[in-house]
Design a protein that fits this description.
The chain has about 190 residues and is an alpha+beta fold. The chain has helices spanning about 1-35, 55-60, 85-95, 115-120, and strands spanning about 40-45, 50, 60-70, 75-85, 100-105, 110-115, 125-130, 135, 140, 155-160.
Length: about 190
């Protein structure tokens, strides 16, 4: 009987230690990933910059109401996106005159691109909130009027280039323009690889 109580006490202690370890590990992982979530601007700029999410949040924010639409035609809804104008960040980095493309890279190796002209539009933002809630991946490029493959999330690097860079889907044959209504759409012209 005494051995049974000792064994039960041992099992409860081990279980408590395991639960506490998992909770602490989960908290540490979230804290580490948040502190490492940065967006850098590199390439053909006079000032390479790196922003933390806190840096971006503390800046003057703007809101854009826009619909995210997949190239298949599926809508992911119209939302109120809040963040920082991309043109303000690029202006601070001071784009060099020979830059023609802006490449965006995510932590998961996804990439996309915009022309410098599109990147400097007033309604293109690096969003931090969707409908007032923080984004799961930290950031989301919001590009109203463009297909969803341009709306990269989890941005880690923005690079200014002097050549016609093509992102993940663009290099697979998707329209680099990606204008909804004027470029190839979901009418059988695109097939997901």
């Amino acid at each position: 009987m005494v051995q049974g109580k000792i064994f039960l006490a041992f099992v409860v202690t081990v279980a408590a230690v395991l639960v506490l370890s998992v909770v602490m590990l989960n908290h540490y992982s979230q804290e580490t990933s948040t502190s490492q979530n940065r967006v850098s601007i590199t390439g053909l700029v006079d000032h390479e910059l790196t922003f933390t999410l806190d840096d971006l949040t503390s800046r003057a924010n703007t809101s854009v109401v826009a619909e995210l639409i997949c190239v298949s035609g599926q809508s992911f809804g119209t939302h109120n996106w809040t963040g920082v104008k991309l043109k303000d960040l690029l202006g601070e980095a001071s784009i060099q005159s020979n830059a023609v493309k802006v490449a965006f890279y995510a932590a998961d190796d996804y990439s996309t691109d915009l022309t410098v002209g599109d990147a400097m539009r007033d309604d293109v933002i690096v969003a931090l909130l969707k409908d007032g809630e923080p984004l799961k991946d930290g950031t989301q490029l919001v590009v109203p009027g463009k297909w969803g493959y341009k709306w990269i999330s989890g941005i880690v690097d923005i690079e200014l280039l002097d050549f016609d860079f093509k992102g993940t889907w663009e290099s697979a044959g998707y329209s680099d323009d990606a204008e909804i209504g004027t470029s190839q759409s979901n009418h059988g012209l695109f097939k997901l690889p």
